[in-house]
Amino acid sequence: MEALYVLEPGSFIRKDGEALKIVKEGSTVAEIPARGLKRLTLVGYVSLSGAVLDFLIHHRIETVFMTPTGRFRARLMLDEHPHVARRQAQYARLGEKTFVLEAARRIVAAKLENQVRHLRRRARDHGIGELEKIALRIHGLQRALRATQDLEVVRGIEGYGTRLYFEAFPFLLRNNLFSFPGRRRRPPTDPVNAMLSFVYTLLTNEVLGAIKAAGLDPYLGSLHEVAPGRPSLACDLVEEWRVLGDRLVLSLINRRYVTPEDFVVRTRSLPEDEPDRVRSVEMKPAALRALIGSYERQMQARIKTEVTGDERQFRWLVHEQVRRFARSLEEPEAVYEPFCIGH
């Protein structure tokens, strides 16, 4: 097993010979062979033994800690990559205003194009004219994007395009048990946003792992500014994959693999000078298993790429795209082409 997700709240992971045991309330709920493990994701309140921690470090197993709402908390991954020259090229190129502008422009152009293709396909499939109208408005932003020489305008176009796209999201839901009040992130306040936030975190971690494997610095990008604790390059390069996460969430909801009963609402008090309470929605283990299972199947699926026409497994395509971005940093004639979904 290459990837393991531990979802049971209050569980404890310990090592027993060549196996990892997941223990809850004194009972073993799962036992997984440790051999071949490459990625471990701990969701919510999960703890592990010192022997497990030593095993993870020794075998260089990428380990990610996430909150129950899908926010990234921490990562255990050794950084001993030999590509010093590649990082030097990254710092040099991402210090050039012209390169930064063009890189950000290409990332946003691909994100907008993916949104347009997604909405138009759903408009055709279901005969929803409003989706086509919103797709046209997003498509119209491409002209302004090509014309601008201002990075802040590029960022503004990305933000406006995303707002338009999420205005269309209620029309994509075909299950009257769910509604979408608009994008709500920190924390997510409804089941749809809870699933979106979680799958976006999974995708960002996927891209972040590929960036580290390629020897790049994940904290310096182009579209997203440098900010404490934010992997800006991962935030840049995940943009081209977000629509895949949207499609996954919509599929689970519209095919009724999840129900409103698969979510729990939590509230917490704000500081004393702000007496209101903030609401957050989390997935129960059944919904988490459904989402993660669908995510892993998608990552292992094969797809034909527009750039080369070859078939690639999604997970390796993410790594390939990051390597292409690295080449654009090292080779002046190389141009990064973000991934676009099929029409």
Structure description:
The structure is a single chain. The protein has 343 residues and is of the alpha/beta class. It has helices spanning 50-58, 84-93, 97-126, 129-147, 151-172, 191-214, 232-237, 242-254, 285-300, 314-330, and strands at 3-6, 12-16, 19-24, 27-33, 39-43, 47-48, 62-66, 72-76, 263-269, 277-283, 302-304, 311-313. The chain has two domains: 3-66, CRISPR-associated endonuclease Cas1, N-terminal domain (Ribosomal Protein L15, Chain: K, domain 2); 84-330, CRISPR-associated endonuclease Cas1, C-terminal domain (Four Helix Bundle (Hemerythrin (Met), subunit A), Up-down Bundle). Helix content is 48%, strand content 17%. A four-stranded mixed sheet has the order 1-5-7-8, with helices on one face. A four-stranded mixed sheet has the order 4-3-2-6. Strand 2 and strand 3 (19-24) form a beta hairpin.
Short summary:
With 343 residues, the chain is an alpha/beta fold. α3 packs parallel to α5, α4 (129-147) runs antiparallel to α5 (151-172) and α6 packs across α10 (314-330).
Features:
343 residues, alpha/beta, Ribosomal Protein L15, Chain: K, domain 2, Four Helix Bundle (Hemerythrin (Met), subunit A), 2 domains, 4-stranded mixed sheet, 10 helices, 12 strands, 48% helix, globular
Span between termini: 34 Å
> If helices are DSSP runs of H or I spanning 4 or more residues, what is the number of helices?
10
Class computed from helices, strands and strand pairing: alpha/beta
The helical percent reads 40-55%
Q: How do the SSEs run, as a string of H and E? A: EEEEEEHEEHHHHHHHEEHEEH
Question: Any low-confidence stretches, pLDDT <50, length ≥5?
Answer: none
Number of domains: 2
Strand order of the largest sheet: 1-5-7-8
Please indicate the percent range of residues in DSSP E strands (runs of 2 or more). Answer: 15-25%
General form: globular
